[in-house]
Specification:
This protein has 8 helices and 10 strands. By secondary structure, it is of the alpha/beta class. It has a single domain, classed as Alpha-Beta Barrel (TIM Barrel). Helix 7 (178-185) links the parallel strand 7 (167-169) and strand 8. The chain starts with a strand and ends with a helix. The relative contact order is 0.16.
Length: 216
Amino acid sequence: MKTRVKICCIASEEEAKLAISFGASALGLVAAMPSGPGPIADDLILRIARSVPPPIATFLLTCETSAAVIIAHHRRTLTNTLQLVDAPEPGVYAVIRAALPSVKIVQVIHVRDESSLDEALQAAAQVDALLLDSGNPSLTIKQLGGTGRVHDWCLSRRIVEQSPVPVFLAGGLNAGNVREAIDQVQPFGVDLCSGVRTDGHLDPKKLEAFFNAVGK
């Protein structure tokens, strides 16, 4: 099965078109975050999401954790997917499903230790997909993605093997290591931001190298 590619930190309609032209099947649109690269205003997320043709997935990256605030955030941006980068409050998934039945829910799991496996499988029973990243939500200023760090792919592989839903792999991926990551973890898809950028902007040469490596 072909590995899907999600390009994150999309900052304009032009970047969206560029990523799609190389074969991206999903785009990440980063809202306000405590830290990390790529946040843009909600009105720009809405504009980009509206410009993206089906069947490309548009992911709203939100750090909100309460159902009412997440739902309100989605209604300002109208993406077809919600990427929850922090652990939500209890009961949130069911409330979102009831309010936004056509919107997919992707839960980010920051892979740090054995506890991440239990966290992932608990979430997987209630969401449409998982995304494994290398943040650290326990810091005073939470790291909720975009760290450029690789985590323990052995743990990620165990999550993939046991998850009932598709799993995306993120965290420090680039053209030089993505093939090894795919071979070792066997994810449904891979996700990256800085690995295909130069001076903060999408780089066509890096995109080409990355997609070539994924497609080998």
